[in-house]
Design a protein that fits this description.
about 375 residues; alpha/beta; 7-stranded mixed β-sheet; about 55% helix
């Protein structure tokens, strides 16, 4: 190499590869946005035109056949996919836009009046939207919760399905805390939303008799899944993290740092029922972290006790005794399916047949036939 040495050349090649991958991601994102906008407007058109069609006209079926005839290379114009486009529009369209659909282009109105929501919705892949629509129907609030989480965390479709299956929308922000008293707004709301109740530890396999150390060991072995369950921005700093307190060396059970919130999280995992003494223990660790690790610009350290079970009144009394921000949550382990139950599970063909039947019933109801 006359112009550059071997290492410089390798660096240059690596840079080109990274730029190429980034351009691929940007191109794919742009294509997804344009496709979803097209689906949105087509769904809006169908809603408007179908109102004037008599019952029994099989309008959707006719539209599907005609579009396929015009564009045989396109794979997106099946009757089922057109039905999803209509659901997509109806799910996210504000009511007043639906009412004024004949007077204005709904996409432009939606973009103008709800720009942040619009950007989120069009950032999520179509397959993700189909999963959300199948699960939550016309529940716009819950659907937008998972749209937002998908955008924030870059979830794959499998991760989205796992979080829906674990009822993340019901667990998020439900931990018992004293944040309203110990933290200032809006810091309190942000930290409260971060915590869940219960935490889903189904990614680890434990028998019925397990010890606390074994559970913690399994969590660390599966740290990637544990971080995903904790949420966006968490970094793992260590287990039994050593801090010197006076003449005694204290071991912080599990220590994390949230890079988005800029705060430390001290986490204690208990395989027993919550005990009020747990608040004093974790409080000592939190003060030590504040004194020895917390830097200028960091937010106040938060403590989280994750226990096998808790009595909410006892938790509330215990938390009121502390001025430090502490949350208490349950955890759940995997619920195993009995072996003799597996033979009763439906086959793939039976599942597909039932889904088709339910789709047809839903469409008839939407058209006012049922």
């Amino acid at each position: 190499m006359d112009i550059m040495n071997v290492e410089e050349y390798k660096t240059w090649i690596g840079g080109i590869a990274r730029r190429y991958r980034q351009s691929q991601i940007k191109a794919a994102t742009a294509v997804n946005v344009e496709m979803l906008k097209f689906y949105w407007t087509l769904g809006a058109d169908i809603v408007r035109l179908e109102k004037d069609q008599p019952w029994g006209s099989k309008f959707m079926q006719r539209v599907s056949a005609d579009l396929k005839a015009w564009m045989p290379e396109a794979k997106c114009f099946s009757r089922v996919n057109l039905y999803y486009m209509v659901r997509f529009f109806n799910l996210y369209a504000p009511v007043k836009i639906v009412q004024q659909i004949a007077e204005q282009l709904p996409l432009l109105a939606f973009s103008r009046e709800y720009p942040n929501v619009c950007q989120m919705v069009f950032s999520v892949p179509w397959g993700h939207h189909m999963v959300i629509m199948d699960k939550f129907g016309d529940d716009q609030r819950t659907a937008l919760f998972y749209v937002r989480k998908t955008v924030e965390n870059g979830w794959s479709r499998a991760m989205l399905e796992n979080n829906i299956a674990s009822n993340l929308h019901l667990r998020q922000g439900n931990a018992e805390t004293n944040f309203d008293l110990a933290l200032t707004d809006p810091d309190s709301d942000l930290a409260k939303e971060t915590l869940k109740d219960p935490y889903d530890f189904s990614f680890i396999a434990m028998d019925e008799k397990y010890r606390e150390e074994e559970l913690k060991t399994e969590l660390i072995k599966n740290i990637e899944q544990f971080l995903q369950e904790l949420g966006r921005g968490f970094s793992y700093l260590g287990r039994e993290y050593k801090l010197q307190v006076g003449d005694t060396q204290r071991a912080v059970d599990m220590l994390f740092y949230n890079v988005f919130e800029r705060r430390y999280y001290v986490i204690e995992v208990k395989v027993r029922k919550f005990d009020p003494a747990d608040v004093g223990q974790i409080g000592t660790y939190m003060v030590a972290v504040n004194r020895q690790l917390k830097q200028p610009g960091d937010q106040q350290t938060v403590g989280l006790i994750i226990c096998r079970e808790k009595d909410r009144v006892t938790v509330q009394y215990a938390l009121e005794s502390s001025s430090l921000p502490i949350g208490v949550s349950d955890y759940v382990l995997e619920r195993f399916i009995p072996a003799d139950f597996k033979s009763q599970l439906p086959t793939i063909e039976e599942v597909e047949g039932e889904l088709t039947r339910r789709m047809e019933i839903a469409e008839k109801r939407r058209l006012g036939k049922a």
